[in-house]
Amino acid sequence: MKHLAAAVLLLLGTAGAALAAEEKAAEPPKPWAVCASCHGPDGNSINPIWPKLAGQGAAYIAKQIHDFKGGKRADPLMSGMAMAVPDAAVDEVAAYFAGQKTQPGVPVKPELVDQGRQLYEAGNPDTGVTACAACHGPNGNGNPAAKFPALGAQHAAYTIKQLQMFRNGSRANDPNEMMRNIAVKLSEEDIEALAMYLSTL
C-alpha cells in the first residue's frame, strides 16, 4: 500500500511539473526579448557598435524607439527592429532597461581620457563648445526629466558614431538641433577623446 501511495504521489508530482513547464512555455515572450538579442538581457551589449541601454533614462529610450518607428531616426538594423515593438509595449521596454545596472567600460585609448574629461567638464571656449556636463550631468547620468541621455560607461565606438552622425546631419532627432549645433564644432580628436572619457564613467 505504501508503495502504491508513493507511486501515485510521484506520478502526480511529475504531471504537475510537466503542466507547469507547459504553462511557462505557453507564456508570450517579454516585449524586451527582441531588444535583448542585440543589447543584452541586462541591457549591456557585447558588441561595441550596439549601445548599452542599462540605466538609460526610460523617457529617452521610449523616444528613440518611437523615433525609429516613425522615421525621425534611421538605422539599417534598428529601424526594422523597432517596428517589432508594439506601441503599447514601448514604455514597458523602456522601463525594463532603465532599471538595469550599467556595467563599467574600458577606454580603448586611455591616453585620451584626460583630454576628454577636460572637454566634457569645461567645454572649449575657443571653439564655442559648451561643457557636456551641463546637460548630461557631472557623472554622465543624463537628465531623465529633460530626456537628455546618460552617457556614462557607453561603448566608445557607439559614442563616436553618434557624434559623427550629429556632426554630418545624418542623425537629426535632437530637439532644436541642440546636439547638431554642438557636434559641428567638434574635431575628430575631440569626438574620440570624449568617447574615451565617457566610457570610464
Can you describe what's shown?
It contains 10 helices and no strands. With 201 residues, it is an all-alpha fold. Helix 6 (113-122) packs across helix 10 (188-198). The termini are far apart.
What is the compact description of this entry?
With 201 residues, the protein is mainly alpha-helical. The chain is built from ten helices and no strands.
CATH topology of the largest domain: the name is Cytochrome Bc1 Complex, Chain D, domain 2
Number of strands: 0
Ranges with pLDDT <50 over ≥5 residues?
A: 4-21
- What's the pLDDT, averaged over the residues? 90
Shape: globular
What is the CATH top level name of the largest domain? Mainly Alpha
Please state the CA-atom Rg, rounded to the nearest Å: 22 Å
List the SSEs and their pairings.
Blueprint (H helix, E strand, L loop, with lengths): L1 H25 L6 H7 L18 H13 L7 H5 L7 H9 L14 H10 L10 H4 L19 H13 L9 H6 L4 H11 L3
